[in-house]
Task: structure prediction
Amino acid sequence: MAEKIGKHIAIYGKGGIGKSTTTSNISAALAEAGYRVIQIGCDPKSDSTNTLRGNNYLPTVLDSLREGNKIHLDDISVKGFGGVLCIESGGPVPGVGCAGRGINAAVNLLQELNLFEEFKPDYVLYDVLGDVVCGGFAVPIRDGITDRAYVVSSSDFMALYAANNLFKAINKYAPTGGAKLGGVIANSMKPGYHREIVDDFVAKTGTSIAGYVNRSLDVQQSELYGKTVIEAKPESAQADIYRNLAKYIAENENLVVPNPLGSSELRDWARSWGDRIYDIENGVVNGVAEAI
Amino acid sequence: MSNVIKNPRNGCALHGALQTVQEIRGAVPVVHANAGCGVVNYLAQRNGSGGGARYSGFSIPGTAAQERHVIFGGASRLREQIKNTIKVQKGDLYVILNSCESAMVGDDVDAMTREIVEQGEPVVDTLVAGFNGGIHYGYEHVLADILKSLDGIFKSDIEKDERLVNVFGIVPDKDPYWQGNLIEIKRILNGFGLKANVFFGATGSVHQLKNAKNAAVSIVFTKWGELPAKVLKEKYDVPVIIRPSLPADANGVQELATALAEIVELDASKVDEFIADEEDFENSILYRVRDEIFEYGLSKTAAFIGEEEQAIRIGGFLKNRFGVEFSAIVLTDALKKDEEHETDNGALLAAISENVYIANDQKEINDILRGSGAEVIFGSSLEKDIAGRLNVPLVEVSYPIVDRVILNKTSVGTNGVISLIEEYVTVVKEYDVRKKEIASSIVRGVQGGESWQERLQKKSYSNKLSSITELQTREYISAQR
Result:
């Protein structure tokens, strides 16, 4: 494979956890900082880049493949906010066909079209759907397509479970040239114990936090306007959170191979947190302070 | 790490199902797979000895699925293909064979089949992904699925026929003698006053499949027939008799009659008369080669390479009647660990040889043969090379036999055992004649005629020569004097 043009970053996470929102805001922040950015949505829903391109129609790579016509880069890409090149891989209708194979085919096609040689990006972000359920969804972290992956997770158990699955995939593929982990993006952070849970999880798995993103009305509002926070509310504190996150991701070279927890280990860990949360919510005092 | 498997002799489940459906008259296969799956099977069959079936090679209807059918699902492509096939190929039954891709993608072929059946077309589907198993798996699963589905398509009442016997376990095109074997089984069952319900080949069709539920009994001749026979047992209460092998000779015919008599009412005097005739016929024909049997010493040390049923049948016969000593038996239709069958023939095989191996790799087989000390090999055309190197005669009995055509010749029953002995004696005799020719050409060279090197250049005896030692030559010359 020829030398890679730009840094290629895959962003994973459980469905609905805020991957696309986070990825789009990172892309927008990088573009704002003057970098050339490509964001590739690897999800049959094909809505990863919506907020970058004001919800305008964009034919997906697989739609074009289905038509069987010769495909040109112009047909499947559009420039969005700050010149971010938006691409959606697309996929089959739900319940039919093989989405994993679809992502594989779309990524191969983009390489055949010399996307990176033509656009010369500084950063390429792959927004990959949901859990790593099969080989197809692991394509962006295999074969040297990306060299780093981030995972978006809240403090919910299922989100951390999905993150742990990604760690397993990285653990498997990293020794043969697959991507390593850049860190966990802690999303939807609320006051209280939420940070602590994610902090404990990264400590247990030998990984680190790339940034904390608080739950914020600005995000919801901007989405409803069809824009990223960077574009809709550039002066807001939330926009700065994304800018800092983008800066961290752009500069971070501390890539690790995580140590995923085993299934029972993960369950036991979650159970221990279940007990702690109960105590916190109900004001139970443990340990040395019990005597007070 | 995985190793190379040289000359594997079993295709995948799709191939097994395809060659099964191809041999049912009136059945039209529709292969839902990428282009090439059907053709590969055709090429393998062409190299075999049985010739092509009605639908073979490039004339097999298929979806030739491409990447877009994998990504977006191939069900609509299949619908199109079935409709087109029905338009251009008249069939009594259309059998959709689903391949690996269809299984991986999860195409809802059952729903598609129901849709077309509701439109009045006779269609069944079966999932025979290559990764599920080999040819034998394909045979038993396609047959089981067809038998399960037939009632939903052709509604008919059960009309039991107390004379009708279903024949299971003979995989079409797998034993080079499959067609002749079915004909011989039919002849034997007729001799017992029964009617054979044979599904494949010259005398089998969709009609026989439809009639299977009315049979008095199903006979399973190899473990690969268990599954479809059990379908009929569960759905229609057709009893099952499981035999370790097809009958090898008149004795085998007698054993078959005994097994059948436990379930079906047989006319004892008719059966006895038939078996006595069979024995007389077999003995009177084989009597003719008595001199050859002693002259060439046919109770040799031998090795057998082939399927389990053949090993039990041919190996057992040669050991018991000719005193052949099997120093190695290699089974080439081995089961995967997770494919369970009721029949366990381990003890039977152990009685024929102490050394029973399971192998599908030619190198492994050759290594076994090298260490076996066999004076004769019973195997396939794939053993020709090693037989030449070991300088021992080869009797071709198992798949594949590539250098001749076998149409309706049998290797089972009275007629089969006669053919087998004919073949055994011929091969050993030819080998002996060739050996003498080589030796005499050397002698002529020694005695001052045309030098044997010159003769060798004219005729390619080189392979055989390597084994003729100087000592043998001298012995031969002194014997001539």
Q: What stands out?
A: The interface with chain B takes residues 62, 65-66, 68, 91-93, 96-99, 101-102, 105 of chain A (CB under 8 Å).
